[in-house]
Amino acid sequence: MYEFIPDNPYLLLTxxxxxxxxxxxxxxxxxxxxxxxDYNEDxxxxxxxxxxxxxxxxxxxxxxxxxxxxxxxxVEATLGSAIPxxxxxxxxxxxxxxxxxxxxxxxxxxxxxxxxxxxTEAPKPDxxxxxxxxxxxITHVSLVHCETTTGMLNPLSELSSIIKAxxxxxILDAMSSFGGIPLxxxxxxxxxLISSSNKCIQGVPGFxxxxxxxxxxxxxxxxxxxxxxxxxxxxKEMDKSGKWxxxxxxxxxxxxxxxxxxxxxEGGIPARYKRYCENQRILVQGMSELGFKALLPKxxxxxxxxxxxxxxxxxxxxxxxxxxxxxxxxxxxxxxxxADTFRIGNIGEVYPVDxxxxxxxxxxxx
Length: 366
Ligand SMILES: *Cc1c(COP(=O)(O)O)cnc(C)c1O
Description:
The protein has helices spanning 22-26, 37-55, 71-82, 96-107, 125-134, 156-165, 185-188, 214-218, 231-241, 250-266, 268-289, 317-326, 352-365; strands at 11-12, 62-68, 89-93, 112-116, 140-144, 146-147, 152-153, 169-173, 192-196, 207-213, 305-309, 329-330, 332-333, 341-345.
């Protein structure tokens, strides 16, 4: 039952950092000089071109900025760079990551307002419509695609059509979905889309990226509220020469390049999406047979991470967590206030066979 994983003591069933392939980790094992084409052209620019191709069929309309730091740094860079002094942001939030965007807006002293929903409730198109009608000052709207807090996949299509009908700039935190769920930025009028190296592309943590409608990124010039997190400046330098303004996380970037190769070898985003859906289906069905109910109804659930309710009030998550980790599986505590939950992610170098083994382990512990 205990799966011996030779180079890792456990499989991460968390939504980033997540389990990566051995070949991705091996790609970390050399140094890179950042002053010539070996790195700037053959790796950085190559990654940028491939990311744009993943984001839209209309490759000429979009560009991408890579940015040092975790995903939140790039969300903050986007909010701080995209919203002009006389602009106003509407943050749609139904979880911790939406709330974090509002927190960033507050710290950056942006003019903003928030549409706050229950964590287990999808944002409602008619409420969004009303808010946009009532406050004509709103220029930008931000949304989290997969709210990793609960695992909810927010209704992108319905919400984006309202955002675009009102002519607003649309910022999407697709951190935990990009690369794992098929999507074309042009179909939803997404102007800025943020994701990071350590989620569905299956690289290691250390940088994030912002895919942007070129026309909108060009308007960010001069909006800057931070030197390091200036999206426009970072883009200008990188677009010209493949150079990062400040020290580039070379090893992580090279590992990401390997992860992009592996995404292609798997069959691209549609194939990865299929694997994640299958992982999630096996997980939920098996957990349900063991007496664990999913928090969200099926129609709101993403194929990325699932929240499960404690099976009974006296359920000891810490003991459960420890026992599962000892047997090779790292689960994830819950993050919501309304119910006792824990989470299991199914993204990363994780396959249906791993889900089946996990279920055996859960069954044996429980
Ligand atoms: C992981 C994640 C982030 C970024 O979190 P970091 O800890 O800064 O990498 C942002 N939004 C969502 C939805 C996420 O899943």
